[in-house]
Amino acid sequence: MTRSAAISESTPRARAPSWAWLLLIAVVLVTVIGVVSDRFQRREPEPTRDPPTVHPGYGPRTYAAALGTSKSRLIGARLGYDHAPGEWLRSEVLARALIAHWRLAGDYRDLTEADRLLDQGLAQAPDPSGPALARAVLSVLVHRLDQAETALDRVGRSAMPDPADTADATALRGDIALQRGQLREASQDFARALNIDHATGIGLRGAMLEAYRGDRAAAAQGLQAILALPRQQPVVLAEVMLQRANIAYMTGDWDGAGGWIGAAQRVFPGYWLGDAYAAQQFALAGRSGDAIRAYEIVARRTNRPEVQDALAHLLRLEGKGAESRAWAAKAAAGWEARARLFPEAVVHHQAEHEIAVGSASRALTFALADIAKRPQAPSLVLLARALLSAGRPGEALAALDRAAAQGWVSAGQQMARAEVLAALGRTSDSEAARAAAEAINPRAADPRTRLIWFGHD
Amino acid sequence: MLAVALLALLGSPAFAHLTPNSEVRLRFEPGVLRADVLIPEAEYRFATGRPANDLSDLRRYIPAHTRATAPDGRRWTVALTDLRVEPAPGGPDILSTLTYTPPPGAPDRRLTLAWDAVIREADSHFALVSVAGDLARGVGEANDLLGSFTAGQRTMAIDRGTVGHGTLLGGAIRLGARHILEGHDHLLFLLALLLPAPMIAARGVWGAVRPMPDTLRALAWIVTAFTLGHSTTLILAALFGARLPTAPVEAAIALSVLISAIHAMRPLFPGGERFVAFGFGLVHGLAFATVISGFGATVLARGTAILGFNLGIEVVQLGLVLLLLPALVVGSRTRWYRPARLALAGFAALASLAWLVERVSDSPNAIASVFAEVLPPLGLALVALSLVIALASSFRLPLKPFRRSGEL
Question: B380, B375, B224, B384: which is closest to B313 by C-alpha?
Fold first, then answer.
């Protein structure tokens, strides 16, 4: 008898093989719970359906028709201007027609002509009359914020401004505040503008501001309200639907975004931006070949550097160097041509182009120029990425701190922060930032997020 | 018309379009510098136009795009010691290890490193450079960023100072202590083996309490055998390069925790704990070896580092045993010990199961994550409880044998 047996307890224990069963059950439970939980975490978000109730009202039903209508208006406005080139009102009408045509065709020569006409009109008209509101619109479009403010001040001096003009002017002040990263002021301006006039454009910008401030649900609700309005122009519906897709991207709902992109293509067929978004959806679905072909069609059709950059970026991610460089060169030439006309308007795009398919050092130069004029969070995040690429993570973090202080809430911003903090060796802070990003967008860390060129954050 | 034009004001603010960058993680070892390099495969193809599945091309390409020079201008030798292409969520990555050796008499921690792989061909690509290991400075697995190689900056002057063997030993002790403290599976294995140490097995169950000297002897045997086991493989790995793939080693460690936990519930190998501790110690040592895979180019440096690393592990192990001793010895003489032992053993078994599933399936397991969160506070609570017991018993350990009625 061993010593152990000698001093052990004498109470016999009934045979209890139950521990083995308990262990087996535990194994099964751990496995099943682990796998199910993992699956649950990775589950696709519920896709937002394309609301079948959304139908366009009046207005050109296709992009080609809209372009035709715009050209006709342009011809009409030009005829009117030619009859009396010294009248500032006719200058303004032609300038507005040119801006509208630029919006669809993307030809910056239209904006150059509009710019000249508006300057001319303002010079011809006695202060405070004149095309000041149109001047402000164009100035905001090309990111000349000080010039826009001067024009809005002139609108404000009008004796009896039209309520719609007052609303537009107030909303334009919101746009300026937004581009300067002053979100609270922008929000107040949009709210004041909406109190005066419930225009679709103002409502849309107010709703998107909610999204930038982190309230995607409120933003989506705002867009749903706009989509529910009767007799919307197809082009307006398509714009709103693409913005709705952007909100879906912000929360990682790629299928939902796809639904809205499809709807935009349905209500306004032939629209290049809708087609570019659709190409992007192919890439997200893992159909890189289809995405490349779809992008190529849009890029060749429109010659827009935005699309050429998206294509070059996708080709780069696919490792197709020669093709990527060829498209990147075309895009660079396109941006350069635009920059000769409106440098402030394209410097952000140039920084993006350089960081994605160009040179890191040039990206930093452009990013610095961008925030000098428009210190909003997206520009600061772009600068942070350029600084990180240049091996200056400390300065990158300072730029991200400035962005965070503005109140912008975005998964992309948090991911940039996570990468910068990781580069600084602050691992736990980096993990916290990454968790914050994933709380906003569960797909924030998914490498496929890189494929989102249009509407990414 | 203006209202529609105003929609154009709503450009989507874009934060940044991303392309994956390279990473160069440096490990400073006495007499040698190693660099673990990650190059996104698509970026390599984008840059060179060549497929990454041609490893012979890569073997020429990577060393040709880096250079290390001593302060006097002499070149370090560069050798590609590992190269593979592995799938990753964002597309495959090219993973390689480069070994830089300084010329005779040149400092091994002061150099100018040049790097332009992919960057030479793709201007916007960049490579983040960090120090992932520097034993002398106590950098183990953390990241200490040095900067980045870009098109505009393809060289970097690096000076990590000079260190002696004393500094190296101190760094290795810190690394060993930190590794065991952060290695939940190692600690749980040890705890599971310690739990039944004060008990005697009989008829397939844990029964009466051992006499105090026997308990102390059993504890000493377990700790010594585990130390001998992991030291053996650690030395074999460090000095002779003995290796096993990480995945089966990690799974075997989880299995060792599971078996020890079951043994703590019901004796599987009564009296054989020391042999099991030694056997599984061999496996745990293989895991330690992955941490100290680069302890230097010379036998003296490796020997110093292994000694320090082992000392760090032993200090923590012995400290833990001493801290838990009151709970084990005094606690085992109370009626609470059996439920506590079963609960802790069950906890260890569940944790090990979660790790096993995670490591065998090679996918994250939510339960394993929960255990990772719970284990540190639980460990602290156990130590605190043990100290309370020690205080309550005025640090007097019971030396007489003890029998409890009803104990199984």
Answer: B224
Cα–Cα distance for residue pair A106/A302, rounded to 1 Å: 8
pLDDT tens, residue by residue, A341-368? 999 999 999 999 999 999 888 999 999 9
Mean pLDDT in residue range A28-42: 61
d(CA A239, CA B132): 48
**B288 to chain A, closest Cα gap in Å:** 22
- List the single residue in A208, A319, A358 with the smallest CB-CB distance to B42: A319
B353 vs A103: CB contact, 8 Å cut-off?
A: no
Residues in chain B, overall count: 408
Q: B205 CA to chain A: closest CA distance, Å? A: 8
Residues 6+ apart with CB under 8 A from A22: none
Q: Are B129 and B147 in contact (CB under 8 A)?
A: yes
Give the number of other Cβ atoms within 10 Å of residue A328's Cβ. 24
For helices B184-194 and B165-182, what crossing angle results, to 10°?
A: 70
Q: What percent of chain A has pLDDT over 70?
A: 88
Please check whether residue A389 is in contact with residue A405, taking contact to mean a CB–CB distance below 8 angstroms.
no
**B20 contacts chain A (CB < 8 A):** yes
Q: What does the pLDDT read at residue A14? A: 47
The answer to whether residue A38 neighbours chain B at the CB level (below 8 Å) is yes
| Residue B109 and residue B146 in contact, taking contact as beta carbons nearer than 8 Å | no
The residue type at B377? P
CB contact under 8 A, A448 and B90: yes
At residue B133, what is the residue type?
G
Angle, CA A63 vertex, CA A58 and CA A69 arms, to 5° = 65
Q: For B145, which of A363, A381, A424 is closest by C-beta distance?
A: A424
Please report residues of A whose CB lies closer than 8 A to that of B332. Answer: none
Judged by a CB distance cut-off of 8 A, whether residue A364 touches chain B is: no
ipTM: 0.75
State the CB neighbour count (10 A cutoff) for residue B351: 27
- Residue A218 · residue A189 · CB < 8 Å: no
pLDDT band, residue A29 (cuts 50/70/90): confident
pLDDT per residue as tens digits for the range A194-238? 999 988 899 999 999 999 999 999 999 999 888 888 878 899 999
Question: Under an 8 A CB cutoff, do A360 and B123 touch?
Answer: yes
For B345, nearest residue in chain A (alpha carbons): A23
- Supply φ then ψ for residue B210, to 5 degrees: -70, 155
Q: Indicate whether B6 pLDDT > 60.
A: no
Segment 419-438 of chain A within 8 Å of chain B by CB: 422-425, 427
pLDDT digits (tens, 9 = 90+) for B225-264: 988 898 888 888 777 766 777 788 888 888 999 999 998 8
- pLDDT of A12 higher than 60: no
Residue A232 CB contacts under 8 Å (≥ 6 apart), including other chains: A56, A57, A200, A226, A240
Q: Do A204 and B20 touch (CB under 8 A)?
A: no
B240 touches A: beta carbon within 8 Å: no
Instruction: Please check the confidence at residue A292 and state whether its pLDDT lies above 50.
Output: yes
SS3 A412: helix
User: Which residues of B are less than 8 Å from A322 in CB distance?
Assistant: 49
Residue B215 and residue B265 in contact, taking contact as beta carbons nearer than 8 Å = no
